[in-house]
Amino acid sequence: MYPRAFHYHRAGSLTEAVTMLSQLGDDAKLLAGGQSLIPLMKLRFANPGHLVDLNFISGTSYIQEEDGGLRFGALTRHAEIADSALAAKIPIVHDCAAGIADVQVRNRGTIGGSLAEADPSGDWAVVLMTLATEVRCLGTNGERTVPLAGFVKDAYTTALAHDELVSEVRVKIPAKGSGGAYIAFKRSAPVYPTASAAVQLTMDGDVCKDAAIVLGCVGLTAIKVTDAEVALRGHSFTDKAIKAAMEAASAAADPQSDMRGSADYKRTLVGALVKRAIEAASHRARGEQVEVSHIYA
Amino acid sequence: MPETIEKVAIRLKVNGKPHSLQVEPRKLLVELLREDLDLTGTHVGCDTTYCGACTVLMNGAAVKSCTMFAVQADGAEILTVEGLEKDGKLHPIQAAFGDSYGLQCGYCTPGLMLSTAQLLANNQQPSDAQIRKAIAGNTCRCTGYQNIFKAIQRAAQTVKGA
Ligand SMILES: Cc1cc2nc3c(=O)[nH]c(=O)nc-3n(C[C@H](O)[C@H](O)[C@H](O)COP(=O)(O)OP(=O)(O)OC[C@H]3O[C@@H](n4cnc5c(N)ncnc54)[C@H](O)[C@@H]3O)c2cc1C
Ligand code: FES
Ligand code: FES
């Protein structure tokens, strides 16, 4: 399958990419890992007249620790993050990167491209919403910092202007006593999840001091479940507290019935995923090493 | 429809052999390999980034060549199934797929062998779980995967012993 013909431009720097976007206008699109854009172009759901390729810009793929946070260059591939000991300082970030699709997609797909795509089934926004995450955006007027919650506006819609790009993603490393886990339910590796749950907990002994609970694939964007967080905060993990969190998650989910399952099924499923993620996260918050894997049908 | 599209000059190495080509930007890497370089060992299965039949290594990393433009391979080293064999001798991965009956129709096999090549280049003692994860992006409609799994274990033994 051939996409519509397009003009190809290779940017030498992120600043040059922004200039190209502003000169070429609405008909131009950035090309990062291409793992969302190229399939869409082949199906002719996306038909850009110009592509600005970011892949040849050096120094855009990195993971660095600075001021108690991790910085990810926009072009950092999922595979690099999955293999990085530094990124594993935030276990939920490792869970996310290692669980996206398959080896081949992870070798190409980028964290910046994923956030910019804002696919309702994408993993990164779900996980990064449980953490203090900022998106650095570079435009013709310079750089600005947008908190992730304000970056994703709607399905496939972000705060980026047409001639603006994601340059870096910054994530605060959670304090000691905090741990998280991300668990998705998938039919196979090379597909998006049916539903997913990201949980980040801060524990004081057996009592939960703080909780962030975010659901994926069950709404137009990631859904932060405040009621589930409230159900856990200040409590120890009794069956009752966990059940309340599961019910709050099922109630907050707003899924569509589709080939992956009915809306009712996904609502039940996401509650169960929240339970499993709470269990894994609470172990990690206590400093235990817990392997977490997605669940494959 | 767009006016004339400029072709782009690229240089790449495929199975060690250098090439300089003029390519249309929308040409996919798999089409460059199959149609321009006559390397038809790389297959197109789904053409929608799912099946992994088109997997090749780019600078050592497995990629789905139906989901990359050829212009993006400028400056890269590509390894396809044709590059596995050396001096008329099968690569240990190829031999292991044969010896373990790791293929039936063979459509998925080149992609699977290249995913295996990335795995074994970085890890000569893969666990069962690591093997499964390494080939999760490759679909086989014939074998039921058990013999593929055994082939990869066998290949790991030979590569390690070599
Ligand atoms: C078979 C398959 C399975 C997949 N499964 C999953 C999954 O389970 N979970 C998951 O999260 N994802 C999944 N993906 C998507 C994958 O993670 C993509 O890599 C990702 O969504 C997009 O990143 P990219 O770098 O490939 O972006 P591209 O496809 O290159 O670009 C996507 C969009 O973002 C824009 N863009 C790219 N980079 C930037 C930037 N720096 N600034 C601004 N705009 C930019 C592009 O113009 C384009 O509109 C899957 C993809 C495939 C093909
Ligand atoms: S042909 Fe490329 S993934 Fe199926
Ligand atoms: S051997 Fe036929 S598809 Fe795998």
Which tags fit this structure?
heterodimer; A: 297 residues; Uridine Diphospho-n-acetylenolpyruvylglucosamine Reductase, domain 2; Uridine Diphospho-n-acetylenolpyruvylglucosamine Reductase, domain 3; Enolase-like, domain 1; 3 domains; 5-stranded antiparallel β-sheet; 5-stranded mixed β-sheet; 11 helices; 33% helix; globular; B: 162 residues; alpha+beta; Ubiquitin-like (UB roll); DNA polymerase, domain 1; 2 domains; binds FE2/S2 (inorganic) cluster
Please, could you describe this protein's structure?
The complex is a heterodimer of chains A (297) and B (162). With 297 residues, chain A is of the alpha+beta class. Chain A has 3 domains: 7-53, 2-Layer Sandwich (Uridine Diphospho-n-acetylenolpyruvylglucosamine Reductase, domain 2); 63-172, 2-Layer Sandwich (Uridine Diphospho-n-acetylenolpyruvylglucosamine Reductase, domain 3); 178-296, CO dehydrogenase flavoprotein, C-terminal domain (Enolase-like, domain 1, 2-Layer Sandwich), CATH 3.30.390.50. Chain A contains 11 helices and 15 strands. Chain A has helices spanning 14-24, 37-42, 78-82, 91-99, 103-108, 111-117, 124-128, 148-151, 226-232, 239-252, 263-285, and strands spanning 7-10, 28-31, 50-53, 63-66, 69-73, 133-139, 142-147, 152-154, 157-158, 165-172, 178-186, 195-204, 207-216, 223-224, 295-296. Chain A has a 5-stranded antiparallel beta sheet. In chain A, strands 14-13-12-11-15 form a 5-stranded mixed beta sheet, with helices on both faces. In chain A, a hairpin with a 2-residue loop joins β6 (133-139) and β7. In chain A, α9 packs antiparallel against α10 and α10 crosses α11 (263-285). The longest helix of chain A is centred in the last third of the chain and has 23 residues, at 263-285. In chain A, 55% of the residues are buried. The mean pLDDT of chain A is 97. Chain B has helices spanning 29-36, 92-99, 109-122, 128-134, 146-161; strands at 8-14, 17-23, 55-58, 61-64, 77-79. Chain B has a 5-stranded mixed beta sheet with strand order 2-1-5-3-4, covered by helices on one side. Chain B has 2 domains: 8-83, Ubiquitin-like (UB roll); 92-161, DNA polymerase, domain 1. Chain B is built from 5 helices and 5 strands; from the N terminus they run ββαβββαααα. Chain B is an alpha+beta fold and 162 residues long. The chains are: A alpha+beta (297), B alpha+beta (162). Chain A binds chain B through residues 1-8, 10, 31, 34-35, 38-39, 42-43, 49, 51, 53, 55-56, 79, 101-105, 107-108, 188-191, and chain B through 1-2, 5-6, 8, 24-28, 47-52, 55, 61-64, 66-69, 71-72, 74, 115, 118, 133-134, 136-138.
